[in-house]
């Protein structure tokens, strides 16, 4: 692939808050998707005192070809992890927190109970903190999803990641229809929960395919959507087919707004959790 264009060259501003953030994560032995997935926004977010906590360990049972998170056989669950996440939220005094995870197909509930307990522990420690969870597909289990929904996060996200025609190549163990059904089911379980999903662009998808996915997401009631540029973590991962220019991202943003999404983030460096609290407030009309 050609050298990345100018719009993908990001200046890194080192903040005095990065070291304290890393110290807290190290002290509490917590993982962040910011580090595990090699997010390009890590310096910015850490510098602002925010992070997306990754629970259920740092080893995924799936091997999606776009993702830098380690895959393999995960170690046993750490029962005190939800409490440690709550401690971090409290020490960082976060008003908004995002909790995601690796996929744990080895667990009977896919880790849903662990998500619910993490939400509970945060509520106990910081009752005013708004909580967003970014969950795996739980292999389509309604019971597992209900466990998370009943814990009442403000936002429940699940990324479709790419267009249906690329699933076999990019995320062969996932199913597009199953992901859509999960987002639809959230609204059936609790219509008060805002739903969110995200797409990576530059994997070889076509414009009409992207618009079709946006339409599908709106049909299942999805409130918030993010669109960002896929960046290849290593040479072992699926290659970048195209660098999408900023103006094209704006075109997709306009289309998404017209479709009725309440908040849309679109741009080369956008990731599903980037400025998440800000876009939740926008979805609420705050």
Could you characterize what this model shows?
By secondary structure, the chain is α/β, with parallel strands linked by helices. 38% of the residues lie in helices and 15% in strands. The protein has one domain: Aldolase class I (TIM Barrel). It contains eleven helices and ten strands. The termini are far apart.
Biggest sheet, open or closed, and with what strands and sense? 8 strands, mixed
Structural class: alpha/beta
Q: What's the CATH class, please?
A: Alpha Beta
Extract low-pLDDT stretches. 34-42
Strand fraction equals 5-15%
The portion of residues assigned to helices is 25-40%
Specify the CATH homologous superfamily: Aldolase class I
Tally of individual helices: 11
SSE pattern, N- to C-terminal: HEHHEEEHEHEHEHHEHEHEH
Number of strands: 10
CATH architecture: Alpha-Beta Barrel
């Amino acid at each position: 692939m050609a050298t990345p264009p100018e719009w993908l060259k990001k200046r890194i501003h080192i903040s005095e808050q990065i070291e304290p953030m890393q110290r807290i994560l190290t002290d509490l032995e917590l993982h962040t998707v910011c580090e595990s997935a090699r997010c390009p926004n890590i310096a910015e977010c850490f510098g602002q005192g925010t992070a997306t906590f990754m629970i259920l360990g740092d080893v995924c049972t799936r091997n999606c070809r776009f993702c830098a998170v380690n895959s393999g056989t995960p170690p046993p669950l750490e029962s005190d992890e939800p409490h440690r996440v709550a401690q971090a939220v409290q020490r960082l005094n976060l008003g908004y927190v995002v909790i995601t995870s690796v996929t744990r197909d080895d667990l009977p509930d896919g880790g849903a109970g662990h998500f619910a307990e993490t939400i509970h522990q945060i509520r106990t420690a910081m009752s005013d903190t708004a909580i967003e969870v970014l969950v795996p597909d739980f292999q389509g289990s309604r019971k597992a999803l209900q466990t998370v929904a009943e814990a009442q996060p403000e936002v429940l996200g699940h990324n479709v990641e790419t267009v249906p025609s690329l699933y076999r190549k990019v995320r062969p163990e996932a199913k597009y229809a199953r992901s859509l059904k999960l987002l639809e089911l959230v609204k059936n379980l609790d219509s008060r929960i805002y739903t969110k999903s995200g797409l990576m662009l530059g994997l070889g998808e076509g414009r009409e395919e992207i618009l079709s996915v946006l339409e599908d997401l709106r049909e299942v009631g999805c409130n918030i959507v993010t669109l960002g540029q896929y960046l290849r973590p290593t040479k072992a991962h699926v290659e970048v087919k195209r660098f999408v220019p900023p103006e094209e991202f704006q075109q997709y943003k306009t289309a998404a707004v017209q479709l009725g999404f309440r908040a849309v983030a679109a741009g080369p460096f956008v990731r599903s959790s980037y400025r998440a609290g800000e876009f939740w407030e926008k979805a609420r009309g705050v």
